[in-house]
Prior knowledge:
alpha+beta; 4-stranded mixed beta sheet; 8 helices; 12 strands
Amino acid sequence: MSELKIDLVKDWQDQILAAMKSEGLNNTRKMKIDQLIISYFTYLRKKEAGLKHKIHLSKEFYCPEKHKPALRKITDLLENGGDIGPYLSTRAIDFKNDYMFNNWGIIHLHLGDQPYERDCRFIKRTGLLLFMYRHDNDAYLINMVEHNRWSNLDNLQILENNWPELIENRKLYGITGLSDVISETERFSFWKKGMDTVTELTDQNGETMVIVPPGDGCMASGDSVKDVLLYMEEEKKLKNIEKAIICDLELIKSKMRDENIQPADNLEFKLVRTDGAWNIVEKNSNWILI
C-alpha cells in the first residue's frame, strides 16, 4: 500500500515566509507563523504595489510648498502602480500593529525627498504626514496632518464631507448619537487593548451619525480583522483540498496512469508557486494535479 505525504498549509506558509525573506522582512518580534503571515498580509495591503490608482483630493487638502516634491512622487507611484513602501512607517516592516489602518483603513505616509539616514529602504521621516484612504482603484488623499494624530476624528469627518459613499455601509441606522463620546486619547487606548469603537460624525445634512470602523477593526491581538479572516479562509481552502486528495487518492493514481505516469509507492504532493500561479505537484514525478 502506497504512503501519502501532504501538508498544503505548511507548504503555503513556507512559500510566504520565503517571499518575506526575499523582501528583507524578518521575524524580529518572534511571532507565531500564522500571526506573522497575517501581519504580512496587512503590510501588502498598505503597499498595494502593482495596482494603479485614480487620485482624489479632499476640499480640505493642503500641501505646504516644501512637501510638494514628495507629494508628486507619491501620486506618481499611486497612479502607475509603484511601490509606496519607502514612504510607510519604519514600524511597517517590523509588523507593529497600525491601529489607525486596521480600524479606519487610513494609511499615513512620510513626506521626505531624500533617503532616511538610519535605513536606506525608507525616505527621510517627517513630522507632517499624508493621510490617505484607498478603495478599489481609487486613492483618496484626506489631508496632511502632524504626527501622532492617529485617532483624530477629523480624518473620518473629511471622508464623510467629501466622499460619503465610502462609509455609507458603515452607518448604524436608527442610532442618532452616543451617550458617551470618547476622546482621541481614550479611543487610541481602546484600540491598543484590542477594542473596536463606534464613532460619531456629522452627515451631509448636518445631522449626527454613528459608524462602525471603516477598516473593519482589530482582533484582541491588535491584528487586522480583514487579514485574520483572509488567513483563515486560505487555510480552510487548503485543508479542504488536502482532504479531497486523501479521499480521492485512488482516483488520482488512476488519472496518473492514464497519462502514462506510474505512481510512486510514496506519493508526495506539494503546493508550489511558479510565475505567480499556485499548483499542487506530485514531487516524485513532477506531475501537476491542480
